[in-house]
Amino acid sequence: MSLDAVQANISLHHLEVKSREPQRLAEFYSNVMDMKITRLNNQKFLCEGPGRKIIMSIGKNKTFGYAGMVCKNEENLERYREFLRITKCEVNDFVSEFYQSGSFAIRDPDNNMICFGVLKKENDFFTQGIHAPLQHLTFASKDVEKFQNFYQRKLGFQVTDRVVKNTGELATCFTTSNHEHHTIACFKSSQNGMDHHSYEAGEWNNIKIWCDHFSKNNVKLMWGPGRHGPGNNLFVFIEDIDGNWIEISAELETVVGRPPQNWPQEERTLNLWGKAIMRS
Ligand SMILES: [Fe+2]
């Protein structure tokens, strides 16, 4: 029997981010995001901390390689693949150093690659560093309606909340593949790409520890501290040296079966405490 993404309990495990200078970007993440660097080859680096892995590879700055999603076991992965067969989602085999055999990839309507697999045992042990596992990814897109239709109907993600303009057009759509408020979301923008990626520090005190760590590295907060309306999470944002936005989050809402809520597109929705960065 098939399982949709939430039933299969899928979470975000790693990301590949492109850069003209992947080594320099990897050094930034090593220092600022408290990760260890491994050189995979001359143009590819792996940064890892507890629950977080980012691959930096050569390419255009601020472009996205792929998102690596994981299922807890092979049975769930196979039953999720069956779901994708029923929705007629095109699936291609995908091989990675992190996944056991049987992993696969899809392309969303903006051509973003999302990969699904089960981890090899040795890829889940890294413990050194400040707590904040990689938790969600958000895209920027010219067409959030298309994003919603694809992730909900083809990939079986659950829509948890939407931000709607007063014209009725979607400004943001939050979707999840497990009990967390969102694992992949999308913001309306004039161009397609990544909006930000986020690490879940769990509690307020860990955000303080991260902010002191950023300060030691002479990195200023670009937004926050604040609290988002959708997801109700506490947040701070910084920018990496390529201009990618990084979020440290805490207290993200747990969602089990509640219907999606529509939020008005206004400053208070994006930040219940103060100023917002309005995307469109
Ligand atoms: Fe976020």
Main CATH class of the largest domain: Alpha Beta
CATH overall fold name of the largest domain: 2,3-Dihydroxybiphenyl 1,2-Dioxygenase, domain 1
Helix content: 10-25%
Order of helices and strands: HEHEEEEHEEEEHEEEEHEEEEH
- Count the domains: 2
Strands of the largest sheet, in order across it? 14-15-16-13-9-12-11-10-17
Describe the protein in words:
The chain has 280 residues and is of the alpha/beta class. It has two domains: 5-124, 2,3-Dihydroxybiphenyl 1,2-Dioxygenase, domain 1, CATH 3.10.180; 135-270, 2,3-Dihydroxybiphenyl 1,2-Dioxygenase, domain 1 (Roll), CATH 3.10.180.10. The chain has six helices and 17 strands. It has helices at 5-8, 22-32, 74-86, 144-154, 204-216, 267-270, and strands at 11-19, 36-41, 44-49, 52-58, 63-71, 92-93, 104-107, 113-118, 134-141, 158-164, 170-176, 184-188, 193-202, 223-227, 234-239, 245-250, 261-264. The strands form two sheets. It has a nine-stranded mixed beta sheet with strand order 14-15-16-13-9-12-11-10-17. The protein has an eight-stranded mixed beta sheet with strand order 2-3-4-1-5-8-7-6. The protein is globular. The protein starts with a helix and ends in a 10-residue tail after the last helix. The structure holds fe (ii) ion (FE2).
